[in-house]
Amino acid sequence: MNANMETLAAQLRAHGHKLTRPRRAILQALAEAAKPLSPAELQTRARVFDAELGLVTVYRTLEIMEELGLVRPVHLADGCHGYALATPGHTHHVVCQRCHAVVEIVGCDLGVFLEHVAARTGYTITGHWLEIAGLCADCQRALQEEAYTREENDHAAE
Amino acid sequence: MNANMETLAAQLRAHGHKLTRPRRAILQALAEAAKPLSPAELQTRARVFDAELGLVTVYRTLEIMEELGLVRPVHLADGCHGYALATPGHTHHVVCQRCHAVVEIVGCDLGVFLEHVAARTGYTITGHWLEIAGLCADCQRALQEEAYTREENDHAAE
DNA sequence: TTCTAAATGAAAAACTTTTTCAATACGGAA
DNA sequence: TTCCGTATTGAAAAAGTTTTTCATTTAGAA
Ligand SMILES: [Mn+2]
Ligand SMILES: [Mn+2]
Ligand SMILES: [Zn+2]
Ligand SMILES: [Zn+2]
To answer: Computed over its alpha carbons, how large is the radius of gyration of chain B?
Structure first.
């Protein structure tokens, strides 16, 4: 169990939760994930570490971890959200459109923008939620190669 | 049928879709909604205009309207998203935490912030998605009154 | 009015999430 | 280390959501 895992486990303990085999498996799977996972995906991956792990436990553990702020729902452009390990504090995510790889952006600069919004709408702003979509470096490369290959084929077909 | 409705209906026609009674009912219900609606909520409200309307048709119509950009999924802080009529162009939403009233913010100013993100992550940024949570003017007032009433009760109980 | 393809609702199927409950296992107390 | 109470578990069932299928209806062009 690495340092990050230790910290997460300690958080659970600190809030009076037991540190069980299923929960360790779920933490491990989340720590290794490079993209937000649905409960079903998470079960599949966590079963590498606990073959018996039930889906119900995944739901229950995500609920606890979300309350403790250890995990965050990350909304995806298509369909709904997946869950990803959260860095403490306010963060945002950049999600790759092609492979769903996710990078966390710590901190943000929307203060002035949000003041405008408050003034214009009469709302008291209590929070915000920003998801950024893009193409990761790998996928940019992959798409360029695809385009190149397609061009070659087109020439051959002439 | 008001002007806004006419425009929406015309959009459907322009893309080769038929303008049916169920679809008009759905448009009408969306036009009157002050908050994002789930498919089930939308069915209930649209049945005021077409009592027979089936839930399947709501799903199918939302799918078409989302493709045409007439409707947008609005992600909510709790659980998942609802659907709201979309203003053309890039917009964001401010959603009231208490009554879910939604105001659309047309235009946004995240250009510089997004450039930073691109530089830091190596991602090409293709889009973003910002939801703002807050309290609408009405709910601010309502909550203040509640607090006041509670205080009165506390005094009476002494 | 006639005709045809698009669209519809009911029913079934597929999927997801929550609830219930008896069995299990974590971790504090001895 | 063993023992014990209770938090936690997985299976099964229930509840809820979304998609598929199909016979029937309807919009709208001709
Ligand atoms: Mn969602
Ligand atoms: Mn932010
Ligand atoms: Zn990628
Ligand atoms: Zn409100």
So the answer is: 20
Smallest CA–CA separation between B88 and chain A, in Å?
18
Domains of chain B as residue ranges with CATH: 1-86 (1.10.10.10), 88-158 (3.30.1490.190)
Distances (CA, A) of B59 to A41, A116, B43, B68: 25, 36, 9, 14
Q: pLDDT by residue (tens digit) across B2-40?
A: 768 889 999 999 999 999 999 999 999 999 998 899 999
Which residues, listed in sequence order, are joined to residue B42 by a DSSP beta bridge?
none
Beta-strand ranges (E) seen in B20-86 are 71-75, 81-85
* CA nearest to B130 within chain A: A130
Instruction: Compare all CA atoms of chain A with the CA of B129 and give the residue at the minimum distance.
Output: A131
Closest CA to A128 of B99, B105, B34: B105
Give SS3 for A117.
helix
Q: What is the pLDDT along chain B (158 residues), one digit of tens a residue?
A: 576 888 999 999 999 999 999 999 999 999 999 889 999 999 999 999 999 999 999 999 999 999 999 999 988 777 788 999 988 778 888 988 888 888 988 878 788 889 999 999 999 999 888 888 899 999 999 999 988 887 777 767 65
* CB within 8 Å: A124 and B105: no
Name the phi and psi angles at B14, rounded to 5.
Answer: -60, -25
**Predicted structure pTM score:** 0.84
Residues of B (83-102) whose Cβ lies below 8 Å from A: 94, 96-97
- Residue A90 DSSP SS3: coil
DSSP secondary structure letter of residue B34: S
Low-confidence ranges of chain A (pLDDT < 70): 1, 3, 157-158
